[in-house]
Amino acid sequence: MKKLILFIICCFGLTVSYAQQAKMIKRLNGKNVTATELITRLNQILDSGKVTGLQVAIINHKNIAWTHSFGLKNLEKQVPLNDSTVMYAASLTKVVFSYLFMRLVEQGIFDLDKPIHGYLKLPISEYPKWKDLGEDTASFNKITPRMILSHSSGLPVLRSLYGNKLRLIAKPGEKYYYSNEGMNLLGFIVEEYTGKGLREWTREEVFGPLQMNHTSMIWEPVFEQNFSYAYFKDGKKYGSERRESSRAAGSMSTTAVDYAKFISNILNKRGLSKKSYGDMLSAQIFIHTERGFGSRKDSLTTENDKIKLSRGLGPTLIVSPYGSAFFHGGHGEANQNYFIAFPEKGISVVLMSNSENFERVSDAILEACIADKYSPLTWLGHFDSH
Description:
Structural class: alpha+beta
CATH architecture: 3-Layer(aba) Sandwich
Number of helices: 10
Distance between the termini: 63 Å
Largest sheet: 9 strands, antiparallel
Number of strands: 15
CATH class: Alpha Beta
Order of helices and strands: HEEHEEEEHHHHHEEEHHEEEEEEH
Helix content: 25-40%
Strand content: 15-25%
CATH topology: Beta-lactamase
């Protein structure tokens, strides 16, 4: 009897394994690819690109269809990466924070178009971290949450690039400038005004309801059980990000599977009203710059006009032959991440890597996974030398 049971278990295991390998993954161009074919192709790309490790989660029909992890989470000890390995999300955090903020707007706590100074307990000049903004209160007082979430507030990406002085580099609402400073300021306002931290807000409003069990805005002790180190281009270890305080711009740790649950929620338009999703996923400001940030952020081009590159409230937006799409990247010291979603097709891919080499082969990975050729990776700086 025991032999019969073992035989059945073995046969069932083989059946499941075969089913996983033969699973058909739907791509944007209508051509399907089997999991086996995709694994083979991705291994080729990652090996040639010297990518240490990568988590992949693909969404079909607006729900998670396939996940797989490649490479190592610990290069020195040759420990494999798996789907539950916690990775640093970097700026993928911004879309989660934006979704949270929209939920708080729907609860009547905030208004997208009310100037942010109205939510502060003190004049901006009395906060040590933000006091420099008090030098031009007339301009600062025009900034709204909508401007911050669409990166049109006029705040810079980082004050460290401007002599460590935080000043507006454009008039509020007039230009697109990607801004970590703006997101972090709005996150601070959420915490001060509500008296509750972003860690708690996201757990209650996002991670808990969506069962994102390997995700937090800060580093949690439980993550020590299964986390990934990150590696530079030459294979040297950077380490791992362990953020101790919540930052709306990029403190989150997660997995590709957990983040795909979040993207699936957006594709199915759950958790927010039709109006809120309309705001979040519609163009708030069009983008005509050569790069999203860096030295060429002020250089203008018409290159991306054909895809109508723009910013929504949180994600960046394009229009493709497969309909509209929303996306965002996450770039740490060595962690590099990216997702793109095509709502009309119900197709998305979430990519989380622990390697500084990911971005230079991201185009091949996206094409292999979902036949995406429309992500503006050049605008994102994926192929620039660092």
